[in-house]
Specification:
This protein is mainly alpha-helical and about 325 residues long. It has one domain. It has 15 helices and two strands. Strand 1 and strand 2 form a beta hairpin. Helix 2 packs antiparallel against helix 12.
Length: about 325
């Protein structure tokens, strides 16, 4: 894909499609933020903790400058965690697990196994993930103001190699994460050097069961407050792609592409095929591609144009 150039990306996923994909990712994840701030975890003050966490993120963003302002998400999480600890709303089992966890340890490795049925079912998912990952790259491009289409193939190759490496040790498949895009939007840190350091740090922390146990002590309310900001930023990035590329929503093809894809993602349409389940992000991504190219093909075959189907402009 890297050798094929970037033109095919623009043809396959014009701005209306990539904007819809990015927006639906944020909207699809929204219920996760709400569940995180709910009271269904058996603790008392999760909604309050969620509000305080979100407020700390917002205040840190505008009240401080420089490095501290860029750490607004981390500051909010720390404030929320400390409040939960003061209120006694940390999960006792998680706290016990933190005390008993070792400082250094290796994960359990397993050799992979292959099944023809599973392989056949997963192949279509790859196409959807390619489109989803392309939407993530487009979102980063919108934030940084740079055209990253030429690097799209590298992103796909990195994703594939990471999945092979993880699967070789019994881990799950990997993909790009929308949460990281939300962090980039919030912190406005786009340096690749920073993410090299973050990646190496994550690997080292992954060798510490103590750190993993610490993560498990973070209350649902804290996660709910933080992800409310992160997922909202992702959804807004989709609209930003439409605005900056001046997507014409007078065109019914563009209008219906965005409308259908966003609703499929936001409502989390789900289709189950055997042991596999396709959720709103996958189906919304597929819907954006199918609706756009399907309607565009029919319009070309009938010789219609967007202007011929708008109707007269209203008089002011």
């Amino acid at each position: 894909m890297q050798l094929a150039g970037a033109r095919w990306i623009d043809a396959l996923m014009p701005p209306v499609v990539t904007g819809a994909i990015v927006a639906l990712i944020g909207l699809n994840l929204a219920p996760v933020a709400w569940d995180g701030g709910g009271s269904g975890t058996g603790v008392k003050a999760q909604p309050l903790i969620a509000v305080v966490t979100l407020a700390a993120i917002l205040l840190t963003t505008v009240a401080f400058r420089g490095f501290l302002a860029r750490l607004s998400i981390l500051v909010g999480v720390v404030v929320g965690w400390l409040l939960a600890a003061l209120l006694g709303d940390l999960d006792p089992k998680a706290v016990t697990g933190l005390r008993e966890a070792a400082w250094v340890g290796l994960p359990q490795f397993h050799t992979p196994s292959f099944g023809l049925r599973a392989v056949i079912l997963v192949i279509p998912v790859i196409l959807v993930l390619i489109a989803e990952n392309a939407g993530h790259v487009k979102a980063v491009a919108a934030m940084t103001g740079r055209n990253l289409d030429r690097d799209m193939g590298r992103a796909f190759m990195g994703d594939g190699l990471a999945t092979v490496l993880a699967g070789s040790g019994g881990g799950s498949g990997t993909t790009t994460y929308a949460e990281n895009i939300g962090v980039m939007a919030a912190t406005r840190v786009y340096s690749t050097a920073a993410y090299w350091v973050a990646g190496l740090t994550a690997v080292l922390l992954g060798l510490s069961p103590k750190f993993g146990a610490l993560i498990l002590t973070v209350p649902a309310g804290v996660l709910g407050g933080a992800t409310t900001a992160l997922y909202g930023l992702i959804a807004v990035l989709g609209a930003r792609i439409w605005i900056e590329n001046r997507v014409d929503f007078h065109d019914p093809v563009n209008l219906m592409t965005a409308a259908v894809a966003v609703i499929v993602g936001a409502a989390n349409y789900t289709v189950t095929a055997g042991d596999l389940s396709f959720n709103g992000i996958a189906l919304g991504t597929a819907a954006a591609l199918v609706v756009y190219h399907g309607m565009r093909l029919v319009a070309r075959l009938r010789g219609t144009t967007p202007d011929s189907r708008r109707g007269p402009e209203p008089e002011l």
